[in-house]
Amino acid sequence: MPPRPAPPGTRPRVVVVGAGHGGIECVKALGDAAVEVLVVDRNNYNKFQPLLYQVATAGLDVDDITQPIRHIVRRQANTDVLLGLVVDVDFEAKRVLLDGGGAVDYDVLVLAPGASTTYYGVEGAEEHAFPLKNIDDAVSLRSHMLRQFEAASADPSLVGNGVLTTVVVGGGPTGVEMTGAIRELTHVLAKDFPHLDVSRARVVLVDGDRAPLSGYAPELREYTVEALEKKGAEFRFGTHVERVDVDGVDLQDGGRIDATTVIWAAGVQANPLVDALGLEQTKGGRVVVDATLRVPGRPDVFVIGDSAGASDAEGNLYPGVAQVAIQQGKHVARLVEAAASGAASDEPFVYHDLGQMATIGRNAAVLQMPSGLRMTGFLAWVGWLLVHVVHLVGFRNRTAVLFNWAYNYVAYDRGPRLILTAEPDPARPARPVLSTAPTVDVAAPPIGGSRDPRLG
């Protein structure tokens, strides 16, 4: 397939790889710039990563947190979209290479491919644990968990073998949010399965630290444990998972948890695409960038989001959260627009920390601001709801999410409790092993397992 040339004219072509938080913000900010923009992504939609866990636990449906990329940019006359999987970049020829042999020429390249799950070399984790990175992951996990209840209903003796036990690996925001949401889903399923002793269902949160939410204030971490305990969650802190198999996990302290569902929320690394580019990398496989987010020696190439090795004044890598990617996307758009108009384009990126928050479930959340303000309980939970609604793309999504949350709250119910995927092996309900081929993802959670957006 011949390369896809830039459109006729003198305006530079900006190719943005990845339509996640950072990529889509960069594209939107370039809507009125004197450039031609091309978005390349393997999916035709943008997903709101922070609420992916709610799809997995039947709180929301897929179309509540997704928006077609073409719909987002439809009013931008200078923007086009290309559905494709980026596998490499020829920096000398200034060409993006696609799976299947296609290619795209660029004048300016913005790499925003997101991140991928890292299993830290834990035996069996990739084969038997569920990640939560993409829409397919969420639907597969939801189907799998519901199928476990169906299996237990058909044969209650399976409960003793861990069929209703879920192990959540990783005590970051995603691990905490998943743990609380699964416990609430279990209460709803008790009404769907009146003849099944759903009280025997277990959710066990495993983390090597002594409490969840590393980086939060001690009192917020203590509140999180207490709130999850009230919901019926169990904990195994101070130990790591050593091995995952079809029937559960072995822990480094010698313990064993029998469980047919293991959710991996323990961390991320840069998207595998980064490894194929031959660029200098730093911790987590991130690309080394300068203060402007350019690749050193390549002034026409930017990297943003979870794949960018950008750091603060103290040399600490910026956290892999949505607000970092959003602010980086807007920053790069300003530099590109300035360069296109002939102005200086060497402004360094500075991250403005807007705070962090995590929900534990109904009426329970934690909030921590850079000013020192800390909040727990109902008010923090309402704040979490409002922040996530504001950051959703599109009026339809905001309306749908608000309606579903209101329904869930008033009725204490859940919506799409649907089994939509087939099990690959009837003898072992589990997901298929995911390919490790380079991919272009739309968004990804930070180290610690969450894509929790900062307040703003």
Automatic annotation (TrEMBL):
Catalytic activity: a quinone + NADH + H(+) = a quinol + NAD(+)
Occurrences of domain External alternative NADH-ubiquinone oxidoreductase-like C-terminal (ranges): 354-408
Protein name: NADH:ubiquinone reductase (non-electrogenic)
Species of origin: Rubrivirga litoralis
Enzyme Commission number: 1.6.5.9
GO molecular function, one term: oxidoreductase activity
UniProt xrefs under Pfam families: NDH2_C, Pyr_redox_2
Domain FAD/NAD(P)-binding: 13-329
UniProt record similarity statement: Belongs to the NADH dehydrogenase family.
Residue ranges crossing the lipid bilayer per the database entry: 378-395
Keywords (A to Z) from UniProt: FAD, Flavoprotein, Membrane, NAD, Oxidoreductase, Transit peptide, Transmembrane, Transmembrane helix
